[in-house]
Design a protein that fits this description.
The protein is mostly beta strands. It has two helices and 16 strands. Helices cover 6% and strands 57% of the residues.
Amino acid sequence: MATNDSITLSGRVTSAANLTTAVSLARAFAPDGKVNNLLAVGGVHQVMLEVRVAEISRSTMKRLGINFTYQRGQDFAITRLSELTTQTVDKEGFINTVFAPSINALFRFGVNSATWTGFIDALKEDGLVKVLAEPTLITLSGKEAEFLAGGEFPVPVPQSGFANTITIEWKEFGVRLWFTPNVLDDGHINIKVAPEVSDLDFTTAVQFSGFIIPGLTTRRASTVVELADGQSFAIAGLLKDNVRDSLSKYPALGDIPILGTLFRSRDFQNERSELLIIVTPHLVKPLDMAKQPLPTDFYIEPNDMELYLEGMLEGREKPGTIGERGRFDGEFGYVLPSENS
């Protein structure tokens, strides 16, 4: 409807995109661009996003380090590779040997006042890590939602202009998710999704004023997709394969065949991981039920006999009771509403 001063729009449109298009066209023909917008967007515009983040990480480490120390009384001492041992001199001038905690074997022999000691650091380690997160978020069309399952770690920050003043900033890590949906025609949903998985990494830690600050190992993806209600898509199968091999040896002696093993130290590490993210959007609407069922509604407190004599964590259903099942360890969680609810 048009008047001399403005154009009035009324009715219902099927999506927010159509609403924006209608208002833009009306402003192009309205006097002075004045538009009275009485349009309403029909349909469901709340979007629930189910996300499954799964990661498997395998690591293998092999380490072999050999170190010798020679000491003759309190007059002369020498040590070599791998930092398994160090020699220190106390206030009285006596030579002392300091052992590293990674030493797991040693051998020793002496002749008169001279002592030879061999230290061995041998280790083979296999690790397996499984990460599984299933966050669920609900937001309106065009609005961003955020989810974090993880924690925070402190980072000391010196303050400029204040001597010896350090404040603490908290950095977040874990499984994080951002998503912004836009409901289109015919139940289709345009979604911008940005998942992130991060974990503390002490192999890249730094020391600052006596504090040990870990680094972060981060896996991040960002994408925009369009799909129908209930359809799923996999964002990425992110693969990582790191191999590290380091060799330390004593000059000349470490190159001797066979015997050179006693003068070498080797460190081998292999890390493999795979990350997969699956996202499923749903159009949802509020339930009309006056009281929503909760998982705790089905829990029955055990009496003294059930708790102490029978070792039960949940009591049995009492005869004649209505609405109590007494079995909390079955299926529970959110329930998607049907079209008729």
